[in-house]
Amino acid sequence: MTMKIKEVADIAGISVRTLHHYDQIGLLCPTSTTEAGYRLYTDEDLEALQQILFFKELGFPLKKIKEIIESPSFNRREALELHQKMLLEKRRRLDQMIATVAKTIQHMKGDIHMSNKEKFAGFDFSQNPFEQEARERWGNEAVDSSNVKLASLSKDEKDGFAEEMNALYARLAALRHTSPHSDEAQAAIKEWYVLLNRMGNYSLDAFKGLGQLYISDERFTKNIDQFGEGLAQFMCEAMGIYTNNHQK
């Protein structure tokens, strides 16, 4: 059984333009075309599309997805099992975030009292869900160094580090309506730079690039702005200013 591109787009919930793009970059090429030039997709093509969309949902760039699925060692079942584990972890964190939002609403109404630690339950920045992007931008050394350092920490040390990061996010959020040039903003963003280098090896250029990623990648923006709308933009500007002021 074959399907035309519009049928596939409707089933998958994506646009025809997206499927055209996947075909153009060689990520998903239809098995055949009609004499009139219409693309025809088979069940196997739809299975490949499902796999692509799973990878995409987990934040993999299209270039990396193509590289993975074209590898001779690629095993679709193993990949699906890994997707399942990652999505379950994602659901766990979302459930925790939803619970935190609900408790915060109750706290605002005066129904319950939340400790400062409870206010940030679910904001776990000790793990980087965007590791692939970091590797592609700044190489493996910085990321591997970070992973080694984190792996060497005990659970209590990791929890403490996450709390420290969350506290600094909250402090920066309180400053986000001030000038990123201000002494207070620059002092806080310096602490952010120092904190990042405690778990990795970030040059000033990498630090500035990370700030730009905060606003160019909606996933970063969404996570950071949970501490306060506009925080990602503020941090990006402050990180750029800090870099410019400290480069020789």
TrEMBL record:
It comes from Bacillus badius. InterPro entries: DNA-bd_dom_put_sf, MerR-type_HTH_dom, MerR_fam, TipA-like_antibiotic-bd, TipAS_dom. The lineage of its organism: Bacteria, Bacillati, Bacillota, Bacilli, Bacillales. This is Transcriptional activator tipA. It comes from the Bacteria. PANTHER family: HTH-TYPE TRANSCRIPTIONAL ACTIVATOR MTA, REDOX-CYCLING DRUG-SENSING TRANSCRIPTIONAL ACTIVATOR SOXR. The keyword DNA-binding applies. Keywords: Activator, DNA-binding, Transcription, Transcription regulation. Residues 2-71 form the HTH merR-type domain. SMART domains: HTH_MERR. The keyword Heme does not apply. It holds the Pfam family MerR_1.
